[in-house]
Amino acid sequence: MSALREAGWRPVAVFAAATVVNVLVALALAGLLFSGFATG
After folding, report:
1. What does the pLDDT look like over 4-13, one tens digit per residue?
2. Would you put residue 38 in left (φ > 0), alpha (ψ -120 to 50) or beta?
3. To 10 degrees, the CA torsion angle through 8, 14, 15, 17?
């Protein structure tokens, strides 16, 4: 636990930023792939 405390907040921020980027890319890709299935 002390190693995690020594690492600080920066690895957590990097992980959170990478997760947000991955989610946005996945949503954009899903939007492109499934745009043909939209009704209307």
Report:
1. 778 889 999 9
2. beta
3. 140
